């Protein structure tokens, strides 16, 4: 695919040019000092050297609360329209691109989820290289080619190197005259991080660490706050609820982020709970994250972004399980 | 309207009939108002999602076999806020239907074999669908035995139908209640005691028998050892499990059993699959 060069001082012009294709959202810092993805007006608001945002970009594709269906007497249930504004998600790290690629597998599989699909179709993903810190552990060098997205920006001493990674990305880049064509970057040497290698080895043999005393240690400390899965780019559990509206003739069905660390997650009709203890709920989370459920069995969904390790108020780190492993 | 995509969009239906079965359990016949891709087809043991406008959805397995007019029959106990709203509904009221979802009983594989159905309480509902299938294709199957346990005589569902079936020569019906609080109305006779005790008194040819079990979790836990000890092969012991299926499409992630999703890989599982999964039953 086509590749271009971009001088660092031209970044504001590039962002302005992108804004012709949709509303640009990128990493910024709120007045409270929280790194977030949100709409920007100028490139000056961008914090491209950010470590990670508090919430991952899944919020654009799977909002924390979303109306699934609208019911009205006589018409029955129907799927409400989603706003058709195109959003350019600018400055995503490779781990977040990988997170979206995983959500695509979940929601765009055999029978695509209509809500996710329509949001995804009007989202353009622009990735950027990043620096690792003490929390994250992805294999960044292997990512850009494998995680999709539409455009990927590599930060080099000479400026940004832009590569289209989808036909949509190529179309957008070709439509921005200020860019200069360059030759593709040589493929980066792929080197796996030690932790990633251990995770791969353990998950390949279906390791559940069922005898580990760590489960009980985690359970004793855990507050069931659920922060680890709220901030996870690949956690997508949702709860479905329906509310009657005050006119007595219509109703709204919503889905809302759910959390497998919450006690009610395993409750069935009549009140029996299949995951009564915190240790069981941790094991459920571990199984989903590292071993995969149903059609995605065998697919590791942890992308190494490090958010869960950073936000846990009692410093629980499921990766300790792997670190103990031979 | 609402003709396609019945996996995410409920198809409008109306309640065509309601029959009280016990104090908290009713039988419903629901007619779908529009044809869907899966119109009239499902395997016994698969489930549907029933929507009560303003209340939400609950998963339920039909008690019937597919019908030409697409009608579905369910046996629903009032156990939560949505089923309570259904209980307050009248004939003619509008509901929504999605499905079928999941994997049902392997009815083709079960052909030419003897069949043992073990139902506890409301667990008779999905097994009633399987039983209806077996009777519809009676000559395809070997001996059929239904063992059904309920708490007390008044809690036995499908009483009249069971009384009729008990008169047939080609099916064996055995009932048991935990407590004999009253005399059983009608023609039925039943034992007093738990299902495992009932099972012990009967001879089977385990290698040639498929066992289908549905009931509350404690029933599974005490039956499974009996069944394994009696020599039924693991892959021929079928459990219909309950979990909180919300989406039916493998996404909401409430219903995983080990790494299997109850809404796709189940709700009918073989003991062969479940025996390795801690907490499955």
Description:
The complex is a heterodimer of chains A (326) and B (281). Chain A has helices at residues 11-18, 58-61, 94-107, 114-121, 143-146, 167-174, 194-204, 214-221, 227-230, 278-291, 307-311, 320-323; strands at residues 3-6, 23-29, 35-39, 65-72, 76-78, 87-92, 123-128, 151-156, 159-164, 180-181, 238-244, 250-257. With 326 residues, chain A is α+β, with helices and mostly antiparallel strands. An 8-stranded mixed β-sheet of chain A has the order 3-2-6-7-8-9-1-10. In chain A, strands 5-4-12-11 form a 4-stranded antiparallel β-sheet, with no helix packed on it. In chain A, α8 (214-221) crosses α10. Chain A starts with a strand and ends with a helix. The model of chain A has no long low-confidence stretch (mean pLDDT 89). Chain B is built from 6 helices and 15 strands. In chain B, a hairpin with a 2-residue loop joins β13 (256-257) and β14 (260-261). The N and C termini of chain B lie far apart (41 Å). In chain B, 51% of the residues are buried. The model of chain B has no long low-confidence stretch (mean pLDDT 90). The interface between A and B is large, with 49 and 44 residues.
What is the N-to-C succession of helices and strands of chain B? EEEEEHEEHEHEEHEHEEEEH
Distance between the termini of chain A: 42 Å
How many β-strand runs of chain A? 12
The chain-level mean pLDDT of chain B equals 90
Relative strand content of chain B: 25-35%
- The helix content of chain A, as a percent range, equals 25-40%
Radius of gyration of chain B: 18 Å
The largest interface is:
A-B, 49 and 44 residues
> How much strand content do the residues of chain A show?
15-25%
Shape of chain B: globular
As residue ranges, the low-confidence spans of chain B are none
- Overall pLDDT of chain A: 89
């Amino acid at each position: 695919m086509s590749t271009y060069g971009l001088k660092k001082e031209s970044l504001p012009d590039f962002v302005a040019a992108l804004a012709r294709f949709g509303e640009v959202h990128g990493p910024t810092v709120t007045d409270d000092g929280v790194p977030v993805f949100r709409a920007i007006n100028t490139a000056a608001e961008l914090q491209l050297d950010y470590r990670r945002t508090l919430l991952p970009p899944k919020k654009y594709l799977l909002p924390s609360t979303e109306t699934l269906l609208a019911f009205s007497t006589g018409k029955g249930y129907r799927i409400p329209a989603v706003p058709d504004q195109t959003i350019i998600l600018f400055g995503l790290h490779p781990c977040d691109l990988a997170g979206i690629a995983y959500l695509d597998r979940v929601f765009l599989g055999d029978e695509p989820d209509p809500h996710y699909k329509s949001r995804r179709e009007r989202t353009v993903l622009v990735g950027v290289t990043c620096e690792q810190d003490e929390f994250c552990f992805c294999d960044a060098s292997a990512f850009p080619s494998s995680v999709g997205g539409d455009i990927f920006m590599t930060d080099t001493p000479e400026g940004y190197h832009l590569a289209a990674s989808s036909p949509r990305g190529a179309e957008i880049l070709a439509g921005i005259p200020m860019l200069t064509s360059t030759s593709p970057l040589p493929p980066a040497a792929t080197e796996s991080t030690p932790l990633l290698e251990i995770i791969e080895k353990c998950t390949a043999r279906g390791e559940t660490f069922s005898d580990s005393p760590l489960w009980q240690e985690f359970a004793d400390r855990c507050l069931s706050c659920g922060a680890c899965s709220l901030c996870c780019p690949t956690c997508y559990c949702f709860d479905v609820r329906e509310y009657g509206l005050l006119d007595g003739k219509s109703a709204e069905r919503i889905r809302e982020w759910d959390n497998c660390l919450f006690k009610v997650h395993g409750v069935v009709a009549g009140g029996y709970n299949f995951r009564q203890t915190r240790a069981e709920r941790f094991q459920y989370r571990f199984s989903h994250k590292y071993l995969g459920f149903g059609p995605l069995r065998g697919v590791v969904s942890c992308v190494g972004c490090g958010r869960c390790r950073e936000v846990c108020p009692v410093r629980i780190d499921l990766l300790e399980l792997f670190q103990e492993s031979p | 309207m609402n003709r396609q995509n019945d996996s995410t969009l409920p198809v409008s239906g109306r309640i065509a009939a309601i029959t009280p079965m016990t104090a908290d359990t009713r039988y419903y016949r629901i007619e779908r108002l529009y044809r869907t891709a899966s119109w009239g087809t499902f395997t016994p043991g698969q489930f549907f999602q029933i929507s009560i406008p303003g209340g939400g959805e609950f998963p339920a397995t039909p008690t019937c076999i597919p019908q030409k007019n697409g009608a579905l029959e369910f046996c629903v106990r009032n156990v939560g806020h949505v089923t309570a709203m259904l209980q307050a509904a009248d004939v003619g009221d509008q509901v929504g239907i999605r499905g079928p979802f999941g994997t049902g009983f392997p009815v083709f594989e079960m052909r030419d074999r003897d069949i043992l159905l073990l139902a506890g309480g409301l667990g008779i509902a999905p097994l009633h669908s399987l039983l209806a299938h077996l009777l519809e294709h009676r000559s395809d199957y070997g001996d059929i035995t239904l063992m059904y346990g309920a708490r007390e005589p008044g809690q036995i569902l499908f009483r009249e139908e069971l009384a009729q079936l008990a008169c047939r020569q080609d099916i064996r019906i055995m009932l048991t209640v935990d407590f004999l609080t009253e005399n059983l109305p009608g023609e039925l006779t039943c034992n007093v005691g738990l299902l495992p005790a009932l099972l012990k008194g009967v001879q089977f040819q385990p290698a040639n028998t498929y066992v289908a079990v549905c009931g509350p979790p404690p029933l599974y836990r005490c039956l499974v050892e009996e069944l394994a000890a009696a020599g039924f092969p693991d892959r021929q012991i079928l459990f219909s499990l309950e979990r909180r299926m919300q989406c039916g499409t493998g996404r909401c992630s409430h219903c995983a059993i080990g790494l299997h999703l109850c809404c796709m890989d189940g709700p009918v599982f073989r003991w062969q699959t479940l025996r390795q999964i801690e907490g499955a039953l």
